Task: inverse folding
């Protein structure tokens, strides 16, 4: 299609990997990956609902959503549409119509480095949507763009096929190859934090968390 570079979709993340991270918080994941894999500057526009799935990446010209429309023709159930819009917030890249299309195709959610509109529709929904801002101004639909390429959002690089996790604190991503060691690390961290909380509640906390914490 004119103006849009299409690449094959990445392998879907193993459902067992997604299940393992279903209840893991984004702060814990970030802490266990040297506090690096955070998509800074994005906030949740949806009512509630956890985001987890496979990164299906899109790069667009500022304020242009043609490539996103074409991506929605290729996505699989469980994919997360991750859009590098260059942080431009002058025009909305998605709204109620694209949300409805995405939901009908089983998309797990939107991560938009740009603006959205029709925010009431997102605020009343559990369909995850993270973006930088909102504006009523609509997008161009002329391209160019690229689908399933490496993108950069909020200072972090996202590759097609990465694991995407979002909660009330924000969005993190990581390669599936890290999942096995990462899940061990986050479980150990969760155990350690539970022990510290128990000490605090019992009045026996001695400051060890601050002394032992990384960074």
Result:
């Amino acid at each position: 299609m004119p103006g849009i570079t299409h690449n094959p979709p990445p392998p879907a993340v193993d459902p067992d990997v997604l299940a393992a991270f279903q209840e893991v918080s984004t702060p814990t994941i970030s802490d266990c990956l040297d506090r690096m894999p955070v998509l800074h500057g994005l906030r949740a526009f949806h009512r509630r609902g956890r985001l987890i799935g496979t990164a299906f990446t899109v790069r667009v010209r500022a304020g242009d959503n043609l490539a996103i429309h074409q991506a929605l023709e290729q996505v699989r159930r469980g994919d997360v549409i991750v859009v590098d819009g260059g942080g431009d917030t002058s025009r909305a890249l998605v709204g109620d119509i694209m949300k409805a299309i995405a939901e009908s195709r089983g998309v797990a959610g939107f991560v938009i480095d740009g603006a959205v509109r029709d925010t009431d529709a997102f605020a009343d929904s559990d369909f995850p949507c993270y973006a930088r801002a909102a504006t009523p101004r609509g997008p161009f639909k002329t391209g160019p763009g690229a689908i399933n390429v490496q993108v950069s959002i909020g200072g972090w690089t996202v590759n097609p096929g990465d694991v995407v996790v979002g909660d009330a604190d924000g969005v993190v991503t990581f390669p599936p190859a890290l999942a096995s060691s990462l899940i061990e690390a986050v479980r150990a961290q969760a155990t350690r934090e539970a022990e510290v909380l128990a000490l605090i509640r019992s009045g026996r906390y001695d400051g060890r968390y601050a002394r032992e914490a990384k960074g």
